[in-house]
Design goal:
The structure holds 2 protein chains of 2 kinds.
Chain A (H helix, E strand, L loop, with lengths): L2 E6 L4 E7 L2 E6 L3 E5 L3 E5 L5 E6 L6 E5 L3 E5 L5 E6 L7 E4 L5 E5 L2 E5 L5 E5 L6 E4 L6 E12 L8 E14 L5 E6 L3 E6 L4 E5 L9 E3 L5 E4 L5 E5 L12 E3 L7 E6 L5 E6 L4 E5 L5 E5 L6 E6 L5 E6 L3 E6 L3
Antiparallel strand pairs in A: 1-30, 2-3, 3-4, 4-5, 6-7, 7-8, 8-9, 10-11, 11-12, 12-13, 14-15, 15-16, 16-17, 17-18, 18-19, 20-21, 21-22, 22-23, 24-25, 25-26, 26-27, 28-29, 29-30
Chain B lengths: L7 E8 L5 H10 L6 E5 L12 E3 L4 E3 L8 E3 H11 L7 E5 L6 H10 L1 H6 E11 L3 H7 L1 H9 L2 E5 L6 H14 L4 E4 L18 H7 L8 H8 L7 H12 L1 E8 L4 H15 L3 E9 L5 E8 L2 E9 L8 E8 L3 H9 L4
Parallel strand pairs in B: 1-6, 1-7, 2-3, 2-6, 7-8, 8-9
Antiparallel strand pairs in B: 4-5, 10-14, 11-12, 11-14, 12-13
Helix pairs in contact in B: 5-6, 7-9
The chains are: A mainly beta, B alpha/beta.
Chain lengths: 325, 342
Amino acid sequence: MPTVAPLDLTAHCIAASFISDIPHFALADGTVHRLDHGHKHLDAHEGGLLCAVANETRDRLLTGGEDGKVLSLGTNGTAQTLAEIGRKWVSAIAAGPRNAVAFATGRTAHVRLPDGTVKSFDHPRTVEGLAFAPKGMRIAVARYNGATLHFPATAGKPAELEWAGAHIGITFSPDGNFLVTAMQENALHGWKLADGKHMRMAGYPAKVKSLSWGPKGKWLASSGAPAAIVWPFQTKDGPMGKAPLELGTRGDTMATTVAFHPTEEILAIGYGDGMVMAVRVADAKEVLLRRPGKGAITSMDWDREGRRIAFGSEAGECGVIDIAG
Amino acid sequence: MSDAQAQIPVTVLTGYLGSGKTTLLNRILSEDHGKRYAVIVNEFGEIGIDNDLIVESDEEIYEMNNGCICCTVRGDLIRTVETLMRRPGRFDAILVETTGLADPAPVAQTFFMDDDVRAKTRLDAVVALVDAKHLPLRLKDSREAADQIAFADVVVLNKTDLVSEDELRQVEASIRRINPSARIHRTERSAVNLTDVLDRGAFDLKRALDNDPHFLDNDHDHEHSHDHDDHDHHHDHAHSSHIEESGVKSIALRGGDMDPKKFFPWIEKTTQIDGANILRLKGIIAIKDDPERYVVQGVHMILEGDHQRAWKDGEKRESRLVFIGRELDEERLRRTFEACQA
């Protein structure tokens, strides 16, 4: 039986993440909590924390806040300031290879390269989302009417991918062949990067706020519907012409967060009422991991072994689920 | 997505540079009214108060990719409101300041069209500050000044000390012609009672009408008496000069009991066809055989309706509907509205 070790906190959880296998919870009130032989916490951002993500080697948590700072937090409670932008909000953050970090303030995307130099790229519209390509030093920016690709290590011209509408989130497929954005109008949009071919993935009743790639990039799971919507990416043309799977369908609430197991085709789904389920892709078999709570699940992360899930909710209820119990 | 959380009221403050917005904002932030406001401003600029809850936000219009040309929202507001609402305990209400040149429609539509914003906040009222001295000029040289008045639930007619009583009456009449249902408050130095601008519930159909028992009663004839000799209902004639100035006019329709099978398809079709030109619409409808008053309101193509309360004994069952907009075909609206009567 799965067991839940709750950690009841008081603010909206921005990111639940295993850092060196220690569960960390970054909250909107600016605090970062961790369960490391007891509950410990750090006041990271004055004013509030806006975004957080694990670095590529998953041994540091990168955070951005209302104080205009970008921090790198270690598991021993220390914080290193990577950048200070003044009174601007750091609204999005992404982790890249060799400790590169990308972050957004307003219409500017900044990239801190492995050698510590920071490059900035201005856009005509707000940088809504950021993602690093899996290979090479390349970032993608989600923006109004499309996406922009930059090569921050070189002085090359950015590549523009156009699609009308507001793009608010962005992710590369693990093989780097596809770029997928979440849109304001309850849809995903994708580009096959080799030829710029468009992929439209529409029909969601709500905005897609959570995306997760399955093992080897064969599936892309998404929130924004009463079920997790899982698109097949096994072939070179992606999901075009294919119907997505609908896993963990609920009648009374929506999937708000999705997280694929690191190696198995098992998807953890967090819902608007705080429930968490695990669903196997092969046969859609469901296992209840956490009963409904006070608020929507906002973040989930599997540990490296795929045995535990750290989760957080908008009401501040956090915790760790042990699958094996 | 949790429903447990109460919706936070949002007040939108519009007005030209120099109309007294900053003075009013400073009063709202500093006076002891028992409420904490998060304020979304276009620029920190003039606000001399240091406060964590003042957030700068660059106006960013997003067209929705749904084929509807007037379905625009403010992308910056969606982001900022969502971020603020992650920490709901910090404030009781939100105030959005727009620039003098801002179109108020996308601001208002953001609170109806974005599901996440709508789930956590509710638009309380649009307040327009107007400079009594400069309004006539603004109405001539800009589209935004008329739009802001057309959209307003409350108009604060400021700097009244700079004009004569006669000029003031003319300015008031101009405002009334654009928007017959807005509350007008005359002030100097933005010294309006804060209770007259905050927590109005103007978009709450039921409350708006309870607050304003004479809603839509003030037909044009009263206002016209200030600057026209004729007291009759020749609206078209009386309006013509003004329409050329601002392009915005209001059309007030009255009728008896409506046939629901005709009225609802009509109003939906009308807002689809004329939505781009309709800035606001409000109405109280008497539905045949329905003991309750039905109230409607709209912003461009967005339409909301609900039962309000039972018609009172002795109250005249009557349908009243006001359109405020540009290039509206009054004859067609009147004819088709009247054809919906039971």
